[in-house]
Structure formats: structure tokens, C-alpha cells
Amino acid sequence: MSIWDIYAVLHTTGPLNKIFQNVEQNNRNLPPIIYTTAVWLEASDGSDDNSNLELGLGDFIFFSVLVGKSFASGDVLMAIICFISVLVGLAITLFILLIKNFPLPALPISITMGLLAHFTAKYFIIPFNDSLQNKLIFI
What we know:
Blueprint: H1 2-10, H2 15-26, E1 34-42, E2 48-56, H3 57-72, H4 76-100, H5 107-134
Antiparallel strand pairs: 1-2
Helix pairs in contact: 1-5, 3-4, 3-5, 4-5
């Protein structure tokens, strides 16, 4: 899914580029598939810079599915770890987006971090925590 997101956003024949070209050619409004928010940054010369951050609504769905799958596994700690890692990945993506000012796919960093956190929690953190609880050692 992350590979498709990279293609869709960055490649010249990707669907997102085709949508943007169609919108520009026909002078129409962008369809409601992108969540846009304004970010005000203070430039080094003291002037205010108004930048828009755009994130596809489909990205929110995949973030929710990953965190929901972690929660459905039955361990709240795993879901919390996965949720925090997805948010950190999203923050990293948005930070890079602010610096580069170029469209970036939101899925690769966040989903990779979320999956790594999910499997790390499932196979290392949760068993370690359970073994400590069996020995009545609480952290």
C-alpha cells in the first residue's frame, strides 16, 4: 500500500497528479479527497508565511485500520504503542513536507513505523511485560 501511495503522489502519471492537472485545466475546485489545513510560520525576516498542509483522507483510513487492528488483538498497550508511533510518523512526514514544500505520500513513514511498533510490541514488549508480571515485578 505504501508503494502505491508513493506512485500515486510522486509519479507524473500517478492519479493524484492527474487529478491536480484536471482541476487546473478546467478551473474547478479540488474534490473533497484532501484534508487541507493552514500553518502559519514566522520566517527568519519576521514576516508571516501562510502555508497549506494537505493530507489525503484515505491516509486517515489506513492509519485507523492499523491502530484498530492493534487494538483488536486484545492488548491495549500494543494499541497505544502503535497509535503513538503512527502519530510520530505523521509528524515526521509533515515536518519534511514543511521543509521541502513538495507533495509527499503520508503512508510510507507512518505505516512503517506503526507496523514496526506493532510487531515489536507483539513479539518483544508484551511477552517481556507478561513475564515481569508473572514474577510480580511491575514497572
